[in-house]
Write a structure and sequence with these properties.
- The complex is a heterodimer of chains A (about 375) and B (about 280).
- With about 375 residues, chain A is an alpha/beta fold.
- Chain A has a single domain (about 1-375), classed as TIM Barrel.
- Helix content of chain A is about 45%, strand content about 15%.
- Chain A has helices spanning about 20, 35-55, 75-85, 105-120, 135-140, 145-160, 200-210, 220-240, 260-280, 290-300, 310-315, 325-340, 355-370; strands at about 1-5, 60-65, 90-100, 125-130, 165-170, 175-180, 195, 215, 250, 255, 320-325, 345.
- Chain A has an 8-stranded parallel beta barrel, surrounded by 5 helices. Chain A has a two-stranded antiparallel sheet with strand order 5-6.
- In chain A, strand 2, helix 3 (about 75-85) and strand 3 (about 90-100) form a beta-alpha-beta unit.
- Chain B is of the alpha/beta class and about 280 residues long.
- The longest helix of chain B has 18 residues, at about 185-205.
- The interface of A and B includes residues 140, 143, 144 and 288 of A.
């Protein structure tokens, strides 16, 4: 069982009435609300927190990519990962991921991931994503061919890592006379590939066929994860093999404090800040980004998404987060990770306004009081 | 109450005009294309907006069919028209329609369209000016016009009220609430999503063709530019820009009208185009 510590690097300083005065924390949320002086402190402390996860013995740390928003301040997760290669010693560094259709040329991803793999001494896990709907607004990337370009770019990157260059590349959306990236990755044949997914069968089957790992993006009801990992195991069987547990990752925020009551008191306000403010607009999706059928399914499944939850009971019943004393968290985590059959848990806690001190206290309790006592 | 009567009235006219247009599916360079046609006379091709209004044969189609032999095709990706996988930009749309004229044996036509359709008409006319006898363009994007941004449909598409405000001069009119309903069934929603997908492929990366302005001088036929005076999606400044680049083009503004003159000012719309094309 592997435990990764996830950070979004959220912006905690939105004005108190943001939810009433702004329709979105994404794309067009005015960047006059950003303050680089406060931003400097945040990056330093967020990176300290991730480095601390390594000290505490987490198996890995995770960063990801979002643009023009207050939800996650890593337009380039590779920059943060670069810092982490120097600040961590043992843990994996999972960049989950780079949104391939946003990179032109996508060879940039092959190069930067190879750099990170070499700099970290082979500790990189590479996430390849299509990118969320808002990114297509922020980067003005044509959405109706996003999936085609994602697949082509992924094939190009893997080939660039595994086939000695230079070679010529031609596909519907990309042409290169000389593919020949320096450096090449340290891990052979290439670093592990993780693909985050939000439950579409198309992605599940693709990841299973390629024998990559499927990371269930957090913020969905536990029933969605039950279905997703069941479908993933089936898809692997269809592809002729049994899914390895470490091919399946479950994203879930976890917050631990001395008692159940204290945990909820410390965590809940920060989490609602995240839900009410930072998730506002996260579902902005350009037409053609998914098929019409998937778009309709997404609309129907809204009630399973964290943004639609209204009460703490909703959060607890749907297991949108695991919050409590070390014993409560141990019981729940053990039960659900076993039930889902996953070999990787991606946990974060510093979403929204949670202070650095409380985040680190929760991580300590999780690493020292909870994880060692979980029976797999 | 008055609005309800107006809606009933339009509904009755839609029913009456239904006998007028016959939909057929024609293979255009291996793209199955739905073409509704009706009337007798000179060939007249109507290219629809991203609303996909040519999924139906509407009273304004029928009105054109009193004077002309009207062809009203559905663009690839709309309704049952296929072949969208072969269309990657506005130029492909232009080639699709020259293929259509060839397939139908139409040497020269009166050509025009509203919004997206008008832009496609312009792209056809600059490439094959000899195939266009008369050209009309209504409320169409396609150019970069300094200081006059297009409205952002993609931002507003979920908000029916804002959408009506953007598309209609009078967003509370019977017509506005009939064209942009408050509640839509799933099939209408899927159609709308598909329509917006086609539009996204045409305009997402750039909502104009950077080469079009310098090519417009090639248009050889009489050209009518027809614009809703209060078009908030594609403001009349776009009409002025087309006029600047097309030799001898006439620009006509329709009073109290927004982006969709075929709905909001049907009478003026049909009259202006009929007079222009018949003359």
């Amino acid at each position: 069982m592997k435990y990764f510590f996830f950070h979004l690097m959220s912006w905690p300083h939105l004005p108190p009435n943001f939810e009433q005065t702004h329709d979105s924390a994404w794309i067009w949320a005015p960047n006059s609300l950003y303050d680089p002086v406060k931003g400097h402190d945040l990056y330093r402390e967020y990176i300290n927190t991730l480095a601390y996860a390594d000290e505490l013995g987490f198996d890995g740390v995770c960063v990801n990519e979002h643009h023009q928003n207050a939800y996650g301040l890593m337009p380039s997760p590779n920059v943060i990962a670069g810092a982490l290669t120097q600040r961590t010693k043992n843990c994996k560094i999972a960049v989950i991921g780079n949104a391939l259709p946003l990179y032109n040329p996508p060879l940039r991803v092959a190069e930067e991931f190879a750099m990170l793999d070499v700099m970290s001494g082979g500790r990189l896990i590479t996430g390849m994503v299509i990118g969320g709907g808002p990114e297509y607004f922020s980067y003005q990337i044509e959405p109706t061919t996003a999936r085609e370009r994602f697949r082509e770019a992924l094939d190009l990157i893997v080939k660039a890592w595994t086939t000695p260059g230079p070679f010529e590349w031609h596909s519907k959306h990309y042409y290169f006379r000389y593919v020949n990236p320096w450096p090449t990755p340290m891990q052979k044949p290439h670093p592990p590939i993780w693909i985050p997914g939000v439950g579409s069968l198309e992605t599940i089957e693709f990841v299973a066929q390629r024998r990559y790992a499927y990371m269930g993006v957090p913020y969905f009801h536990i029933d969605i994860f039950r279905r997703v990992f069941g479908q993933f195991r089936e898809a692997c069987q269809k592809a002729g093999y049994e899914a390895h547990p470490e091919q399946m990752g479950w994203g879930v925020p976890i917050y631990v404090a001395e008692t159940d009551k204290q945990a909820r008191e410390e965590f809940e306000p920060a989490f609602w800040y995240f839900i009410k403010n930072l998730m506002k607009g996260i579902g902005t999706t350009p037409p053609g980004y998914t098929s019409a059928k998937s778009a309709a399914a997404i609309l129907k499944n809204q009630q399973y998404f964290l943004y639609q939850q209204k009460t703490w009971a909703d959060i607890e019943n749907g297991v949108f987060a695991i919050v409590g004393s070390p014993e409560t968290v141990r019981q729940k985590l053990q039960r659900y990770q076993k039930e889902l059959g996953v070999g990787v848990v991606l946990t974060g806690c510093q979403t929204g306004t949670l202070s650095h001190e409380l985040a680190r206290k929760s991580m300590e309790l999780l690493a020292r009081e909870v994880l060692p006592k979980i029976k797999c | 109450m008055l609005n309800i009567l107006k809606k009933l009235h339009y509904g009755a006219r839609v029913l009456l005009s239904r006998g007028g247009g016959q939909p057929e599916t024609v293979e255009i360079a291996s793209r199955p294309t739905v073409i509704t046609h009706g009337g007798e006379g000179e060939p007249f091709v109507y290219l629809h907006s991203a609303l996909g209004e040519s999924m139906l044969w509407l009273p304004f189609h029928q009105a054109f069919a009193r004077k002309f032999k009207v062809y009203s095709p559905l663009h690839p990706g709309f309704g049952r028209s296929g072949g969208f996988d072969q269309i990657s930009d506005i130029e492909d749309m232009a080639f699709h329609y020259i293929d259509m004229l060839d397939a139908l044996g139409l040497e020269q036509v009166c050509l025009g369209g509203v919004s997206l359709g008008g832009w496609i008409a312009a792209e056809i006319a600059v490439r094959w000016p000899e195939r266009v006898r008369k050209l009309w363009i209504a409320d169409a994007p396609g150019l970069w016009v300094e200081g006059a941004s297009l409205g952002d449909l993609f931002r507003l598409m979920q908000d029916r009220e804002e959408l009506r405000k953007m598309l209609f001069h009078d967003p509370h009119s019977a017509m506005a609430t009939m064209v942009i309903k408050d509640h839509v069934d799933e099939s209408t929603m899927l159609n709308a999503y598909q329509a917006m997908t086609v539009l996204a492929r045409m305009i997402w990366t750039r909502p104009y063709d950077p080469k079009l302005a310098s090519r417009l001088r090639r248009i050889a036929c009489p050209t009518l530019l027809l614009w809703g005076e209060h078009d908030r999606l594609v403001p009349p400044a776009f009409g002025e820009a087309y006029q600047k680049h097309i030799p001898g083009a006439e620009l006509k503004l329709i009073k109290d009208c927004g982006h969709l003159p075929m709905f909001e000012k049907e009478l003026e719309f049909v009259e202006a185009i009929t007079r222009f094309c018949a003359g």
